[in-house]
Amino acid sequence: MADLTIDHRKAARCILGTGANLTEKEGQFLGGMAFRSEPLTERQARWLDILVKRHGLPEWNLLAEGGEHE
Predict the structure, then answer these.
(1) What is the domain extent for residue 34?
(2) Beta-carbon neighbour count of residue 15 at 10 Å?
């Protein structure tokens, strides 16, 4: 599988839009990520990856515009 470039803003908005039962901390984090224009830190990227997997979002749907996937 190719190295996927996930759009963190799109991923955060998708999770928030699912109506998932989030903790306050998760909601605050995702709200910030939904509008963050700067690249994520390694720690932020790890946590977002955990949340994407926890909430079962398909990675192919979170690719940055123009991202490649197999």
Answers:
(1) 8-62
(2) 25
Q: In Å, how far are 11, 66 from 50, measured between CA atoms?
A: 11, 24
Number of residues in the chain: 70
Tens digit of each residue's pLDDT (9 = 90 or more) over 9-46? 989 999 999 888 999 999 999 999 999 999 888 899 88
Token reading at 24: 């306050």
Residue with tokens 């940055």: 64
Confirm if 34 and 13 have CB atoms less than 8 A apart.
Answer: yes
Report the run of H or E that residue 52 belongs to, with start and end: helix 42-54
46-61 tens-digit pLDDT: 899 899 888 887 765 5
Nearest of 65, 10, 52, 56 to residue 34 by alpha carbon: 10
In a domain, 69, yes or no: no
